[in-house]
Amino acid sequence: MNLDDQLPLRYRFDKVVTKSYDSILASCEKLKETVEPDYKIKISGHHIWLHVGLLQREKHSPHLHLEIEKMEDGNTFVRGLFGPDPVLWTLFMFLHFVVGGIFVIFTVIAFSKWSLDQSYKFDLLVMFAMINAWFLLYFIARLNRKKGLKQARELEALMEKILE
Asked: Which residues cross the membrane (predicted)?
């Protein structure tokens, strides 16, 4: 996997491994005890979450969600998703909805003022500021993703230990 060249903020991948479903869960349970202070591994059903440990966690630290499925030929299909910390992701989504809501409200106000032949320059200014805020949020997210790339590679190496 090449995490550097990926455009999306939340990198997804699919992988077929020859290891069986049960042996993946067993190796995950065994590895969970050895990496405990540095990494946190949660298992629920056919989902595995890999997190950076509390001592190394930063606001830009990623997590890795793995979904494992049995295949008919004995192999295992693994779906992975790298993402930011869920709290940070929720904050960014909230900010996006606020910016979008303000943009829509001021668009309606600007249209109303335009149809009534009133001045709507301030409303256009706010709309322009919201567009800039969208871009700012996007670039902040890209910067956080770039800062967390080293830890994402560490989580990828941990995943490889589980899958091999």
From this structure: 87-112, 124-141
Q: Tell me the C-alpha distance between 123 and 135, whole Å.
A: 19
Instruction: Dump pLDDT digits (tens) for 63-82.
Output: 888 898 888 887 889 888 88
Range of the domain at 116: 89-142
**Alpha carbons 60 and 144: distance in angstroms, whole number:** 5
129-144 pLDDT, tens digit each: 999 999 999 999 888 8
How far from 83 is each of 105, 106, 129, 141, CA to CA, in Å? 31, 32, 28, 11
Specify whether 57 is located in the same domain as 111.
Answer: no
What does 77-95 look like in DSSP terms, one character per residue?
EEEEEEEE-HHHHHHHHHH
Cα separation, 13 vs 82, whole angstroms: 9
User: Does residue 102 lie within any of the structural domains?
Assistant: yes
In this structure, are 19 and 74 located in the same domain?
Answer: yes
Residue 125 in tokens: 């200014």
Q: Do 117 and 157 fall into the same domain?
A: no
Please give the sequence-ordered ranges of beta strands (E in DSSP) within 38-90, or none if there are none: 39-44, 47-52, 62-70, 76-84
- Whether residue 41 sits in one domain with residue 71: yes
